[in-house]
């Protein structure tokens, strides 16, 4: 009856009540009919009752019965009781040892498995092929080349007959330990090779970057199984050959090979890299049509794909329906990754407010918060410039006991720096005390962002003198520091150092920083020479930086020449058009201003609205120019009028040319528009909402204009109040009528 019942679907749900009754009737012989327990994860009471019954009726002395019980325990994931049973067994054979060795290997307790194998040999038990395969798997995971070679030698000395499984285990061991000479010799000497063998060899070539050899070996295969397709496509992606991987994915479909869960996950990662949303939707549809079980891993691949393709609505839809369609395994790795992925996606797509709400929900639902979720939300705080929320997240990190490692430390340094609190960034940097390039680069860039160029360079020089190798990001920070501090000679020297000493190939950002370095210093001839020497005429970012320098120095002739090079690219970025328009407006050449604006309209280019925001008592208040939507608008405007009047008495005057409009205006109307720039409204609100000695921190999505810069300087002088403004390029610390940029920005 028990043997028949085990064939019933979901029998394991009813087994406990039925078996307890039947065991009372069974003799030791009938006990062997209960082998089906090994295929189910039995509740512990049932497994324990089997154990008790075996001891009471004496069947435990039967080695087959004891081995079955041991198998039941390990399949039920009761490893502690399995080990206890193992120690109590009066006799043990090769199967007994193999059950436990293979179980430890399967769950990743590789050291324990090798120790058990050693004890097995000491007891004189000869391992079989399956035991040896498990031991070699442990050696592979631990990269224990010496031990694995010892096992290989033992096999040869004792005349163990190789089957294809054991040969594959040995082959995989040599590949994982990067002993490719032995791996190649073994591969060529194998008489029988199955799909696993070819898969290992292809994977080995891909791991060493030998893509051509891997593809050639793949092409030589006749009938290709799904695992080989998965290996080659995934390997091509890891080596940066996404387009070839996509081509092979289409070939796989044409070949008629059915996708499995791994194939779908690999395909979704490929879509994420290519940012091909339409293809991603097709694969999602194929998943649903295939009827394949969408487990947590595949669901997270779908969420990640939609996030990286910028389709947050679909990502949230998959995320929100995970309880309904996929079931919920509370605080499982899959669930934690789902939450982390959705928070990361919201941050990646600039939806910071929703990221904060989702993170708050994650905390309230008591979901385990991993380091990835924390770094994502800290990054959101940095991008949005919300210092108080960033401090709360930092407090949560400390409360949870997360170790302040290099990556979390660098995220916190970046957050404090971008929220305008350089002192706390330095404090975190000193606490970490690691010689790690990511950490030190964050601090170098933080100094650069705040215009502390000399300190950034000192830190960089100190790190090099202590043997820390800088990377390409480090040099972006160093060149930014030189640019913002006007250190032209130093910047040129570090650019050469990057190429000639460290062998780092300059990227777009390095070239842009160098153009900015020359441009801020007014060295336009050097910029032309630099562009010619490096062959970077095709880089829009370089020309835009050049144009920005023309505006800074009000060189209209050079600006027109630069604009010709930039606008022929037909960029949809409004920045270059606005820069040129502003340059014409400064010179009061209104016809040219109108021409540029008509060009923008004809090309469908839209200017990004200027916005400033300030955080007061855990609430973010955003403003745009001439904003009248704030609940305290009357109080803000009244104070701003009064403040501007007081500032005029100590020397402040509005620059009417910065209105940038060729219209008939009544006297004072231009100044009125300038008076309602977004950062001035945010400043006024900050002043009336904070104590007199409390610094004001304002974030702005575009470059601060000359007039607002003067306004901040005079306001800090009049009120003896520190004002910190972060624009798109850097921080400005206004104190006692001076700015940290030295009016050089």
UniProtKB/TrEMBL annotation:
InterPro entries xrefs: DYW_dom, E_motif, PPR_At4g14850-like_plant, PPR_rpt, TPR-like_helical_dom_sf
Record keywords, A-Z: Repeat
GO molecular function: RNA binding; zinc ion binding
Residue span, DYW domain: 651-745
Domain of life the protein comes from: Eukaryota
Protein name: DYW domain-containing protein
One biological process term in Gene Ontology: RNA modification
Annotated PANTHER family: PENTATRICOPEPTIDE REPEAT-CONTAINING PROTEIN
Family designation: Belongs to the PPR family. PCMP-H subfamily.
NCBIfam families: PPR (TIGR00756)
A family per Pfam: PPR
PPR repeat coordinates: 93-127, 194-228, 295-325, 335-369, 436-470
């Amino acid at each position: 009856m028990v043997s028949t019942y085990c064939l019933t679907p979901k029998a394991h749900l009813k087994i406990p009540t039925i078996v307890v009754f039947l065991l009372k009737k069974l003799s030791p012989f009938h006990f062997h009919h209960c082998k089906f327990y090994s295929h189910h994860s039995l509740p512990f009471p049932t497994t324990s009752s089997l154990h008790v019954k075996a001891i009471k009726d004496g069947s435990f002395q039967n080695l087959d019965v004891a081995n079955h019980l041991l198998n039941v325990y390990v399949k039920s994931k009761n490893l502690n009781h399995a080990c206890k049973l193992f120690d109590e067994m009066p006799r043990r054979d090769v199967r007994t040892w193999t059950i436990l060795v293979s179980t430890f290997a399967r769950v990743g307790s590789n050291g324990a498995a090798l120790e058990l194998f050693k004890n097995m040999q000491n007891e004189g038990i000869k391992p079989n092929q399956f035991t040896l395969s498990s031991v070699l798997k442990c050696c592979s995971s631990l990269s224990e080349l010496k031990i694995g070679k010892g096992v290989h030698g033992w096999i040869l000395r004792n005349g163990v007959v190789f089957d294809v499984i054991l040969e594959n285990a040995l082959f995989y061991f040599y590949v994982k330990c990067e002993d490719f000479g032995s791996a190649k010799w073994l591969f060529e000497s194998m008489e029988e090779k199955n799909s696993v063998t070819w898969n290992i060899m292809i994977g080995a070539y891909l791991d060493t970057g030998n893509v051509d050899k891997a593809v050639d070996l793949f092409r030589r295969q006749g009938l290709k199984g799904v695992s080989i397709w998965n290996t080659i496509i995934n390997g091509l992606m890891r080596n940066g050959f996404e387009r070839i991987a996509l081509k092979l994915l289409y070939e796989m479909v044409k070949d008629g090979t059915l996708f499995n869960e791994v194939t779908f996950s690999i395909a979704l990662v490929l879509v994420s890299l290519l940012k091909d949303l339409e293809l991603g939707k097709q694969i999602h549809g194929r998943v649903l049509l295939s009827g394949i079980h969408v487990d947590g891993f595949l669901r997270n691949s779908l969420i990640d794909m939609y996030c990286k393709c910028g389709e947050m609505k679909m990502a949230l839809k998959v995320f929100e329906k995970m309880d309904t369609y996929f079931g919920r395994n509370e605080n499982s790795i899959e669930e934690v990754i789902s939450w982390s992925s959705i928070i990361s996606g919201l941050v990646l797509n600039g939806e910071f407010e929703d990221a904060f709400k989702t993170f708050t929900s994650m905390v309230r639902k008591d979901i385990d918060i991993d380091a990835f979720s924390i770094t994502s939300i800290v990054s959101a705080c940095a991008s949005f410039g919300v210092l108080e929320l960033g401090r709360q997240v930092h407090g949560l990190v400390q409360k949870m006991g997360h170790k302040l490692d290099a990556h979390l430390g660098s995220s916190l340094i970046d957050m404090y720096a971008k929220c305008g609190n350089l002192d706390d960034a330095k404090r975190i940097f000193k606490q970490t005390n690691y010689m790690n390039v990511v950490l030190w680069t964050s601090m170098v860039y933080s100094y650069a962002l705040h215009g502390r160029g000399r300190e950034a360079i000192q830190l960089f020089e100190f790190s090099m003198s202590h043997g820390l190798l800088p990377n390409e990001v480090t040099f972006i920070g160093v060149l930014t520091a030189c640019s913002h501090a006007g250190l032209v000679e130093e910047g040129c020297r570090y650019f050469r150092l990057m190429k000639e000493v460290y062998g780092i190939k300059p990227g777009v950002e390095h070239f842009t920083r160098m153009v900015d370095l020359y441009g801020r210093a007014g060295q336009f001839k050097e910029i032309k020479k630099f562009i010619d020497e490096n062959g970077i005429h095709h880089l829009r970012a370089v020309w835009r930086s050049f144009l920005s320098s023309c505006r800074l120095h009000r060189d209209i002739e050079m600006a027109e020449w630069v604009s010709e090079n930039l606008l022929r690219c037909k960029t949809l970025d409004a920045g270059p058009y606005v820069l040129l328009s502003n340059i014409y407006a400064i010179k009061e050449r209104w016809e040219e201003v109108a021409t540029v604006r008509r060009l923008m309209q004809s090309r469908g280019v839209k200017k990004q609205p200027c916005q400033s925001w300030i955080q007061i008592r855990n609430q973010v208040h955003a403003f745009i120019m001439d904003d009248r939507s704030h609940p305290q608008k009357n109080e803000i405007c009244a104070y701003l009028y009064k403040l501007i009047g007081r500032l005029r008495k100590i020397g402040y005057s509005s620059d009417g040319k910065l209105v940038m409009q060729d219209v008939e205006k009544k006297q004072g109307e231009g100044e009125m528009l300038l008076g309602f720039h977004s950062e001035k409204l945010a400043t006024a609100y900050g002043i009336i909402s904070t104590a007199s000695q409390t610094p004001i921190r304002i974030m702005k999505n575009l470059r601060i204009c000359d007039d607002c810069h003067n306004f901040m300087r005079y306001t800090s002088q009049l009120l003896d109040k520190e004002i910190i403004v972060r624009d798109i390029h850097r921080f400005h610390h206004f104190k006692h009528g001076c700015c940290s940029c030295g009016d050089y920005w």
